[in-house]
Amino acid sequence: MKKLSVILGLLLVMGISGYAMAADDFAPWVGIRGSYQATFEQRLFNDIVNFDGTTTKVDSESQFLVPRARIGVDGRLLEDLYFCAEFDGRYTSSGRGTLLRYAYVRWDFLKNDSMLNQLEMGAITTTFARGLSGTEYAFINYDICTVLDSYQYGVQYRGSFANKLIDVYLSVNNGTGLTSLNVGSGLQYVGRIEITPFGGDYKDLREGSTGKTVKDGGSFLTISAAAALDNKARTDDFGYTAEYYKSQHLLADITFKVGGISFFAQGVYNAYDALEDGTYWGGIDRNIEKSYGGFAQLGYNLGAFGLIELEPMVKFEYWNDVANEGFGPQDTIKQDFAVGINWYLKEHDLKLNAEFRHILKDEKVYAVKAPCDNYIGVRMTHKFGAKVPL
Fold this sequence. Notes:
This protein is mainly beta.
């Protein structure tokens, strides 16, 4: 199914691109766009103290990556019918092939000066957590907080009411399905509501935005809550029989900006049903009964005062995976602290990020190798191509 979607998406990109080049009157409605990232990472490990008191030296690791190499097309077939497809070629070097980021058609309906309703269909990005990728709120390293995978096949409704005071997101998608072997599918239901008391014109921070929040585009405050139900299944015989269960997910976040100050905080709670044998099969390691935590980060953009577009940031994260393999719950708390700086050379289209992250606590037992105690990263992001109004 996914391979077919990639093939159809590539044909869509080629067909629309060719039609756009051949039809002068249609070309302004179509945009070809791309982006890439280049990252240098340095991971610093502390030496391991053995049970006998001796010390094992652990060397640090460094690498140069291209974590993003995307190309896509978007445009409007009709005034109210928007399409978009994007692919990421970063996995070609490891033999995994091109990754489909998203490919969907969106219909805008029942819209006026204070209201807009949209329906997305296809390979979509569900809106459970606030879209942060590509914004001034993005750090280089991944968060230790775990949330639902946003890339799904399904349908999503997006509604904006009362001059962007209230935004609603509802989606039904294929969810995780039979997780172990990816045979079969269980539907996932996601709902999110955002309330913006002021600054609705400036609150959209997703990658398709115009970058208004880089400078002093205006203050805004958004308070949001989301919930999801994900139907899952486990199989040990290649899908012949399966054991079905579900997980519940709750999220709340707040986004605030005034002048050059920006603040974002997010809290998450995940709960998983027990299997028939009393064990749990949730989370990344498939042994989590529940998990909860969150993070808060604060930044200040010097460009708000007409200075260079530099934005220093600070971030703190807390997370607890409550593991249960049939012997009772066991807390595994993780905490880390990060500082970073963003340099907007050309708003969000060309920017540099630098980050230092330090692990304060990690109670998890690792089978192979624990993550680094300190992380240093530098990343450049460059976007190019024509822009089509969203």
